[in-house]
Every structure is written in structure tokens, then in C-alpha cells.
Amino acid sequence: MSPSVLTAVAAAPLTSASTEAQDAPALSRQPSSLWVPRVDSLTEFGLLISRQLTQCRRYGGRLAVLWLEAAPLAREAGPREAGAAEAPGTATAAPASPETEALMHAVGRRVRGRVRGTDMVLQVGENSFAVLLLDAGGFEAGLVQQRLMQALNGPYGVGDGVQHVGLQMGTAVFPEGGVRGAELAETARTDLRHRMGRAAANH
Hints:
7 strands, disordered N terminus, 7 helices, alpha+beta, single chain, five-stranded mixed β-sheet, two-stranded antiparallel sheet
């Protein structure tokens, strides 16, 4: 992402978002309130939220990062695929890359629609999302996590079929989890891995 794009996104109101130039044609058909910008590294993520972190340090504000990883699950066949070798509704092969990209866009839009307009939603890489929760601590982040888990587990209509995603989430709170954006993201990812480990140990 170029410095000009980083500057434009960081300076924009939190109720709007920009995205990389290559994604603009596909996302431009969506309502502007559901645009989800994408970055490809934790460094870029840290740059995008630096203004919010500076304000928290200056005025003693609260901030939490919710990290979400989404993995495509087996796809249900659509009507035009029903006459093929498999019956309708049976699992098919993993979706192709364009379908996966469309699914991740759908996940991002659903996340954007389930949080406050003052919160920031970013796609990080191919299948990760970061939600910047302003004026929120660990308790509030936990409530948002529960709400998103319920909302995002539903089906997604992509192409001519229906898809689902497997979700994992973790949280980090400023300043305990870090004072820089990349530190907060890494803390949230570590929390995600710990949650996965505990869930696996309980089964």
C-alpha cells in the first residue's frame, strides 16, 4: 500500500474506509458504509491506527483490538450444480481463489455491519480481519466477540452456491496488550492461538 493511501485512510472519518486500487471496482458496487479496506502486513495495520493510538495516549482513552481469522469451509452446491455428480447440498471441493476472495469480502462487509460506525474494520492479508474498538476494554471486546461469532457463523451466498466459514477470534487491550498497532495485533493473535489450544484440549 502506498503512503498516499495510508495517509488518506488514516485521515478519513472512522465511518468510512478506502481500499486498495485493485479492489476498488468490485467494492465500489457496495454501500460506502460497508467498505472494508485491506492491508497486507501488521506494519501497515499499525500505521493505519497510529492516529487513534496517539489520541489514547494523549487523553487516556480506551481501545481494544479484536482479531478474527476466517477459513472457508466446504461449499454447498448451487442449483446449477445440482445435476452434476454430487447431489444438491453435498460438500464440494474447496472454492477457487476468486470465490474465496468474494467470500472474504462478504465476511468483511458482515463484520462492518455488526459493529459501531465509530469502530474501524480492516482486512489484513487474505483471511484475517482486525476490528478496532474505540472506548472499549476487555469486557466490551468480549461482548462484541460473542455478537460477531453468532452473526458470522451464518451462510454466505457466493456465486451460485452457499458457503460457510470457520472462525477464530482473539482480543488485545491498549495499553496492556501493547502500545503500538503491530504489538496489539500480535497480542490478539496470540490470544487467538491460546483460545484454540484450550478449545482443542477440551475436546
